[in-house]
Every structure is written in C-alpha cells, then in structure tokens.
Amino acid sequence: MLDQIFGRMFLSQWIVFLTLVILLVGLSELAWRMGFARSLKKSEADKDSGTVRSAVLALLGLLLGFSFAIAGARHEARRELLVEEANSIDTTARRAQLLPEPHSANVVQLLREYVPLRIEAHREGQFSERFATLRKRTVELQDRLWTEAVAAAGERPSPITATFIASLNETIDLEAKRIAAKRNHVPGAVWLLLLCVAGCGLWLVSYQAGTSRCQSILERFVFPLLVAIVITLITDIDTPRQGLISLDERPLLELNETLSGSSTATTP
C-alpha cells in the first residue's frame, strides 16, 4: 500500500522537490518562530545539551545513506539489464537470419516493431495506462515471435534453430526482469520513516535556534533546502525517467537504428 502511494507521488521529481521544499522549509520556519516566541517569555535563553538533536540528526544521516545505497544499487541493476536486453535482442536478430524463409524475414520484422516498444515502455510510469497498453502489445509480439520459432523448429529442426530459440527465450526473460526491476524501488516504509525523521530533525534544529534567538538563515532555510535536495536526488535515482538522472538508453536506441537500417538496405 505504501509502495503504491509513494510510487504515484514520485511520478515527477520536480513536483517532489517543490513539495519537499515547501513542507520542510515551512516546518523549519514554524519551529523557529515557536522557539523564538517561547524565548521572549523567559529572561534567559534555554540551555540545551543537544543530545537528542544530535541523535536524531545522526539517524537522519544514516537513513539518507541507507536509502541512497538502495536506490543506487537498483539503478545499477536496471542499467545492466538494459544492456543485457539490447545484446540479447541483437543476438536474436542475427540468429534469425539463419532460419528458413519466410520465418527469418518475419522474425526480423517483428523485432523491428519490438525494440521501439521496449524503449517507450520504460519511459512511462508503471501505473500509467500507456504503460499497460505497451506491455500488452509487447506480450502480443512475444507470442508472435514464439509462434515463428515453433514453426521454424517444426519445419527444420537443427542446432541452429535451437540456438535461436534459446536467444529468443532469453530476450523474453529479460523483458520480464526489466519489468520487475522497474517496479523494485526503495520500500514505502523507508520513505515514510525518512520523512518523519527529517521532519523531527529540522524541527529540533530550528526550535533550538529560535529559543537561542539566533537569526541565522542556515537553520531556517539552508538546512531544510539541502535535505530536500538530497531526498529528491534519491527519488530521482530510484525512479529514473525524466529527471536529472536517467538510464542510458543508447544500447537500445543504437540497436533500433541498426534494425531500421537493415530494413532500408533490404528494401528494393
């Protein structure tokens, strides 16, 4: 439940950043004003050892590092799967040329339609209707490719056909793995805990600054802004689509150009 809620909230990193800035800066400013108002009612500023504040900030740093490590590892896994899928599709297309006609031409043409779908699908959000439509079209193309492989194996069973079937099976498996990796994010419970600890840490820092009658903008604005930037960066790494950090799609884009170029070259 939490994963779906945060997944929908993180559809746009810019909206995430603006929301975090408004909430965190607003919370920090409110805490400072309450602390400052309390200090006016007392002759001396409150003395605070800062033990609890330091502990909460240390916990915040630990959670930020933990979340960043999770997001970074899953981003790297997605990048590796993208390269593996591009290589697998390329191998399938090359081995398809060894199949008897008309299966060879049919498979290559289906792969030309398959690659653009793979590129577009992973640019869409996992909860969007467009993604569901592209996913359905991808499965249909996979079924058609498998039908061609079964027909080719039935007409001329050979080691060459077996190697083609193996590469096609790997291509289909990698598509499923990339879908699973796309849905695999930092758990929603971790995001909720991180936001709660960040809010508590900012409140304690700003409240103490207010009770000390400190007018510094570091506690009131700079610190919450930095926390918002770090959290937004983690969400961007965790959901790489249209933010500052995105997956390098060049392997699939270059493969798409190669397959399209081969189609143009074979057209009389």
Describe what you observe in this structure.
- With 268 residues, this protein is an all-alpha fold.
- It has helices spanning 2-9, 13-40, 51-96, 103-121, 129-155, 159-183, 188-211, 217-238, 250-266.
- It starts with a helix and ends with a helix.
Q: Give me the oligomer status.
A: single chain
- Category by helix and strand content: mainly alpha
Strand content: under 5%
Q: Helices and strands, in N-to-C order?
A: HHHHHHHHH
Quickly list its features.
single chain; mainly alpha; 81% helix
Quick summary of this structure?
By secondary structure, this protein is mostly helical.
Topology:
Layout (H helix, E strand, L loop, with lengths): L1 H8 L3 H28 L10 H46 L6 H19 L7 H27 L3 H25 L4 H24 L5 H22 L11 H17 L2
